Amino acid sequence: MNSRTIMTADACLDFFGLTANPFPLAPDSSHMYISGHIDAIIREIAHGMIARKGFFVLAGDIGLGKTTISRHIIEILETNGVATSLVLNTAYQNEALLHEINNDFGIQTGGDGSEDPVRVLYRFIADRNAEGRNCAIVVDDAQNLSPESLEYIRLIANFEAGGQKLVQVLLVGQYGLLKNLDIPSLRQLKSRIYIKKEARPLSRKELGRYIQFKLHSAGGNDMLRFTRSAIHCIYRLTKGNFRKVNILADRCLYAAFAHGTLKIVVRHVREAYHDVPDRRSLWLARPDMMPLAALLLVAMLFAGHYSGAFNRASSFVQAAVNIKWLPGVAAIRRPMQTDRLSKRPYRETGVGYGYSERVGIAGTRQNETHPPWDGVDDPKPGSAMQGNHILPTGTPDMMNPSSANEIAVADVPALRHTVDQFLGFYQVRGQTERLVNALQTDTTDSVTSQILRETGYALLSFDVLPARVWNRYAILEYPVTGAGKTSHYLLWRPELTVAQFYYGYRSDAIRRLQVLLAEQGFYRRGIDDIVGKHLMKAIVEFQQANGIDITGYPDPQTIFMLYSYRR
To answer: Which residues contact 162 (CB under 8 A, 6 or more apart)?
Structure first.
């Protein structure tokens, strides 16, 4: 990092076009990333507390977002009319803990403090119950509670009337909390736990979504990005721990700012890592580890005569020295539609409608005058028929990604021809080389904004696509190196762009998003133009139902899939 560069937080944010720090160290439930696991925790605990099930525990290691999750649960409870008390300082023990609970409920007591705090609390909770209101107590850092304090918690959790719990208690803490609850004298309290959940770190795949979500929540656009290699490096260093990710990612922004770049690469991660006081080993980045890496590589290569050993060694090479072994296979599927008059299939072309075509890697074309599924299509001599496209003989099986990934050197001219035909379908010119290079280097994310800016089309990638999309769009299929799967690319003129998305944000774009989700039955609240927990939940559920990467954010893939139902 250039020490001569004077960096301030505001200057750094302005440089990246951000309106707020995307990676704050303090808990921030208003810009909370909700993974599938976190969503399950929130839904189950919040529902259980609203349903008056009594006693709940959320445990996990330091830095896994327990506090943020508990704040989000409190917001849900308060939205549903539940009176809440939050205890942050567990230095309070025994009766002092009860006084703290009462204070946060806003209970007024006598000035001399002689009144029994348990009786005061019970009277308050009973009065709320008479009003038809539920009460909840959330204790953070509960691993610090003494056995005597936990006994008070048990006493509170016993408040009942009419066969239902008058107060719901959520203990949030590190794993020491679970050990404390195993004390024989607290066996009765442990038996009352209705739901026990454990927070866990981000997976490698979730980390990329998390970073993207946090950048967008802070007003970022697709110009600022972390490369895939940088994200993998961050994961190796943090193991997906939210707090460690935020610390390292925040420092990465300063490193990139010092270098005057909008693209954060491994070099910036390493620079940022060396600024972290409590850093751990960065394997492969440490010079003393390189001889060991080389020895492992040599050992794996000598084991190549064993089944699969060479493939494992090649994967190791790619990971260690960033070498890309490029698959040379691509195919286009052109959209299939049905003529309303003749009921015969036709396919859209870039200008209008005409002959349907199949395009393989070498651009082989075959006019069709009958549906491809009626069994009368015979492949030409010297070619292999596959679904809706033809591949020249000797081309690896597109429906078997593993065979495609065995290609060591790309057939660049053929790939260029295929990409050119794919772009031609959309009448897009001048982007062939850019897209070919991106496919070969697995950097399609980096060219998306350029293609959108120059052509008005968004380049979208999906692992799977529904039939309605196959039938309407030209699809470029390309195998993912070493992943054993195929990516499906298409171009789309965005009809809606959600520039910002965080709790409480309001705009016309949010209204249109709510309408789209409501049309598909995922958003079942009033259209209020505001980002709230119900909208966030609807997006996650829609992404799950449609096989889209679960980002919790209305990214272009999600918005495209929503509009695809309207056609």
So the answer is: none
83-120 CB burial, b ≥16 within 10 A, e <16 = bbbbbeebebbeeebbbbbbeebebebeeeeeeebeeb
pLDDT, tens digit (0-9, with 9 covering 90-100), for 163-201: 789 999 999 999 999 999 998 888 888 888 999 999 999
Bridge partners for 56 per DSSP: 170, 195
Count other Cβ atoms within 10 Å, centred on residue 169: 27
For residue 213, give the amino acid letter: F
Token code pair at residue 222: 């697709």
In this structure, the number of other CB atoms found within 10 A of the CB of residue 445 comes to 17
Contact by Cβ (8 Å): 22, 220: yes
Task: Give the span between the Cα atoms of 377 and 387, in whole angstroms.
Answer: 11
Label each residue of 98-139 as H, E or C. HHHHHHHHCCCCCCCCCCCHHHHHHHHHHHHHHCCCCEEEEE
Q: Report the distance separating Cα 483 and Cα 460, nearest Å.
A: 19
Give residue-wise pLDDT tens across range 339-381.
332 233 333 333 222 223 334 333 333 333 333 323 333 333 3
| Secondary structure E strands in 131-174 | 135-139, 160-161, 164-165, 167-173
Rounded distance between C-alpha atoms, residue 192 and residue 480, angstroms: 49
